[in-house]
Design goal:
Layout: H1 2-42, E1 45-46, E2 54-55, H2 59-70, H3 73-102, H4 110-122, H5 125-135, H6 142-149, H7 164-189, H8 193-201, H9 206-234, H10 238-244, H11 251-255, H12 260-270, H13 274-302
Antiparallel strand pairs: 1-2
Helix pairs in contact: 1-13, 2-3, 2-13, 3-7, 3-9, 3-12, 4-7, 5-10, 7-9, 9-13, 12-13
Length: about 300
């Protein structure tokens, strides 16, 4: 009788658990898993819309391969995406760790500074892009005005091909540092002070304590931040799109802004080349998947769990 009551209770617990996770599972299936499978299928087809198509095999991938070899749009999209992702992740991690350490100290108005650094994360990327478009303006922008005060002629940030992606990196790092800083700050506050006290007794200076205590014990959070930042960097679109609107309509200028997601949007929703756009999306998925697997494999050598 007791065993029967236990089994009934277990069934109720399992039923409640399944009901709780069902919305998330259904959401992932409907909005992620099924669209991903459909995109893979569409990458082997050609047609004017998602419902009218014909199977063309590897033709769409061949088109992108030729563009890559000939230095056409896809080659610029791939280079710009890799450039933006890795440089923004590198600088973003450095600044996030720096600010997290500074705001973990006993300083005045610490909560206010944390709020100020986190505010950009609460602002829509389109609004951020519009504001920075004015700041980067070569004629009356604040950044070039400040540079002119110290005798430096500011560049054409949004029109010069040498500065388009660096401009986007500056904005991307500025808008993401606050979020990553909060995560790293939470990781820093979970490190016991006894480690630092013992190291200080042994004569370790601040740099040695940071290198041999902070970084190893913070490595799980650093790994998570790096993983999500790389994914976000490769999927960047809204900020690039907003900044490109201020650069003009010249094809040569817009070529400097093209990232893979920008190319997917343009091919699919402007030129209705859904097959080629889907093929590029699949390639982007494979790149992100490969980088994620590499990071998961490499983290065993440098991530330390207590």
């Amino acid at each position: 009788m007791a065993a029967r009551r236990i089994s009934v209770r277990k069934r109720k617990e399992w039923t409640a658990a399944y009901l709780m996770v069902a919305p998330v599972v259904l959401g992932i299936m409907v909005f992620y898993f099924i669209p991903t499978l459909w995109t893979i299928f569409m990458s082997f087809t050609e047609g004017p819309d998602f419902l009218t198509y014909q199977f063309v095999g590897w033709k769409n991938y061949t088109v992108l391969w030729r563009e890559l070899l000939n230095g056409a749009e896809f080659s610029h999209e791939l280079v710009n995406t890799v450039y933006y992702a890795f440089v923004s992740v590198g600088f973003g991690l450095c600044f996030s760790v720096l600010f997290a350490n500074l705001l973990n100290q006993n300083i005045k108005c610490r909560s206010l500074f944390r709020l100020i650094y986190f505010l950009p994360c609460l602002t829509m990327a389109s609004a951020v892009g519009v504001v920075w478009r004015f700041l980067f303006n070569s004629k009356f922008g604040l950044i070039n005005a400040i540079l002119s005060w110290i005798g430096i002629k500011g560049p054409m940030w949004l029109s010069d091909g040498h500065f388009t992606i660096p401009s986007a990196i500056i904005v991307g790092v500025w808008s993401s540092v606050g979020y990553n800083m909060i995560l790293l700050l939470a990781g820093l506050q979970n490190i016991s002070k006894t480690y630092y006290e013992a190291a200080e007794i042994d004569g370790a200076n601040s740099i040695q304590r940071f290198r041999h205590i902070t970084i190893p014990l913070l490595s799980p959070v650093l790994f998570f931040v790096m993983l999500t930042s790389v994914m976000g960097g490769f999927k960047m679109f809204d900020l690039i799109y907003t900044l490109s609107n201020a650069a003009g309509s010249s094809a040569s200028i817009l070529l400097n802004y093209r990232t893979m997601v920008f190319g997917i949007y343009e091919r699919g929703f402007l030129y209705t080349k859904f097959g080629v756009a889907s093929a590029e999306a699949v390639i982007l998925l494979l790149i992100i998947l490969a980088l994620t697997l590499i990071q998961m494999k490499a983290q065993k050598k440098w991530v330390h769990y207590e």
